[in-house]
Structure formats: C-alpha cells, structure tokens
Amino acid sequence: MRVIRLYQSLPANTESQIIGKQLLRSSTSVVANYRAACRSRSNAEFYSKISIVIEETDESLFWLEILTEAGIVKAELLVELCRENEEIIKIMVTARKHSEKSK
C-alpha cells in the first residue's frame, strides 16, 4: 500500500511515471506471487513462486534506487521501503533454502 501511495505522489512528468509504473508492477507482483506460494500445491511450485518473489522484490528495490538516483524522490523518504525490501529478500531466500532441504 505504501508503494501505491508513493506512486500517487510522484510528479506527473514522463520519467517519474514510467519508473513509478515499473515499481508499481514489480511490488504488486511480489504480493501476488507470495500469496500464490502460500497456496502452492507442491514443494516445486512453492520454490518457483518464492523465486519469483525474490526476483520481483529485488526489482522493486532497483526501481526505488532509480527514483533516488534520478533525483525524483529524496533518499531519506525511501529508506524504510528499501530496508523492507531487503528484509523481504532475506526472508524469502531463507524460505527457499528450507524448501530445498525438505525435498
């Protein structure tokens, strides 16, 4: 929800909107694929969905960094979102490793 509000607050210029839409797509994909992983029917399906969650979370982190580096959003406003993305990556990598062990 914070990413949606961030997107809504971005300037209306083309570059901000393009980067913002990329962030919006990747961050909503994180949630959708995590939900799918929780409902997976097999360990292989769980592994696959969690892998997508990791990729999309990393991509979201990338777009947050681009927003900062491009001077669109001040870095201090994104610190918490970036930290949250990094934590999600660590948790999902651990979950993926545990799913490998239970095969």
Word description of this protein:
This protein is mainly α and 103 residues long. The chain has a single domain (2-101), classed as Up-down Bundle (de novo design (two linked rop proteins)). It is 84% helix and 0% strand. The chain has four helices and no strands. It has helices at residues 2-9, 14-38, 43-69, 75-101. α1 (2-9) runs antiparallel to α2 and α3 runs antiparallel to α4 (75-101). The mean pLDDT is 96.
What's the CATH first level? Answer: Mainly Alpha
User: SSE string, helix = H, strand = E?
Assistant: HHHH
The CATH homologous superfamily:
23S rRNA-intervening sequence
What is the number of helical segments per DSSP (H or I, 4+ residues)?
A: 4
Cα-based radius of gyration, to the nearest Å: 15 Å
Query: Architecture in CATH?
Result: Up-down Bundle
In the predicted model, the low-confidence regions spanning at least 5 consecutive residues are none
Strand composition percent: under 5%
Rounded mean pLDDT is 96
* Helix/sheet category: mainly alpha
The portion of residues assigned to helices is over 70%
Distance between the termini: 35 Å
Beta-strand segment tally = 0
Give a quick precis of the structure.
It contains 4 helices and no strands.
What characteristics describe this protein?
4 helices, 103 residues, single chain, mainly alpha, de novo design (two linked rop proteins), 84% helix
